[in-house]
Amino acid sequence: MSATTHASNELPDNPLRQLTLDQLRQRTSEKWRRYDPDVLPLWVAEMDVLLAEPIAKAVTDAIAAGDTGYPSGTGYADAVAAFAAERWHWADLDRDRIRTVPDIMLGVVEMFKTVTGPGDAIVVNSPVYPPFHLFPVFNDRTVVEAPLGADQRIDFAALAAAFELALGRGGRAAYLLCHPHNPTGTVHTRSELERVARLAADYGVRVVADEAHAPLVAPGTRFVPYLTVAGGERGLALTSAAKAWNLPGLRGAVAIAGTEAVADLARMPEKMSISISHLGSIAHAAAFREGGPWLDALLAGLDANRRFLAELLAERLPEVRYRPEPGTYLAWLDCRGLGLGDDPAAAFLERGRVALNSGLPFGTGGAGHVRLNYATSPEILTEAVDRMAASL
Ligand SMILES: Cc1ncc(COP(=O)(O)O)c(C=O)c1O
């Protein structure tokens, strides 16, 4: 498939092809408003899609009925459990192990509070989603990095060293696993996850798995929830419909306990569970319950975009190194061959008028890299790569 023939080969119902640039520029969300109107934004993890029809209906029905009170019931938990059983072969996920939280990162913090104390360390695999560096610190924890290997996968020697360092001062420690990994899109395998669990058990480190991007794993790649692997029973996990169905504006997430971590999850204050937005939980439940066909169309579109981006880069920016991974819609681009210094995103923005995430806030391994969000149309993707190339 060549870069030029891609457009005509798309599925007709590709959610990434329903909006024009003019329509997208009307949006008032962060992606479209942070930069000047001449800048093409492919940065923050918002997608250029319309809402899946069942989600739009659930939310507009609730609005029409004035159903905007406090959240109630187990609709979100039920929908996650059913989706997990169908898509991830997770048959024994008891709804009692699932609690709603206002969003993923607030849920992550609550999980830290249940398994660590102030001053304790949180281990992260840099380069990683910048809030993984920030939220522990905002909450009186320190961060210890275990950088990914050159293959973008967990480096177990680095992880063991980080566990050692994290426990060095005698406190407790947790490992915040990003699964799939943002920004690389790496999907950890069952054997890697089992190795994580063994290492965590050896050191007495608790695992908190952020599975925000889990529904976005490409067809043909198996997503294995951390809590389902041998040794994962003591883990805690978070997931949400926000990334896969583009719902960051309708906030919500769930925290899930491994079979031996139910008491830990139970320590989370009730106030946290009921602080989820009622409309958010309606939207997220509809996504997990009825959003499957839309998700499948999206995943096909993302798969095509992933291959298309690799082609575009090979043709127009051959010095950029990109290792496509099946995990999500984020591409981690090694731009060190371009001679743009530690922060190539700054040059692409200033000279190319294209907004990408700078790699620097992702921690060790981020210098000279950018993160590009390809959850957009092939036309916008083409224009973005053209602008990057023109800025050199
Ligand atoms: C790994 C990861 N966790 C959490 C979030 C944010 O989720 P929330 O907005 O629900 O806190 C994101 C958003 O991009 C993410 O990539």
Automatic annotation (TrEMBL):
Its cofactor is pyridoxal 5'-phosphate. Its EC number is 4.4.1.13. Residues 46-387 form the Aminotransferase class I/classII large domain. CDD domains: AAT_like (cd00609). The keyword Lyase applies. Keywords: Aminotransferase, Lyase, Pyridoxal phosphate, Transferase. One of its GO terms (molecular function) is transaminase activity. Belongs to the class-II pyridoxal-phosphate-dependent aminotransferase family. MalY/PatB cystathionine beta-lyase subfamily. This is cysteine-S-conjugate beta-lyase.
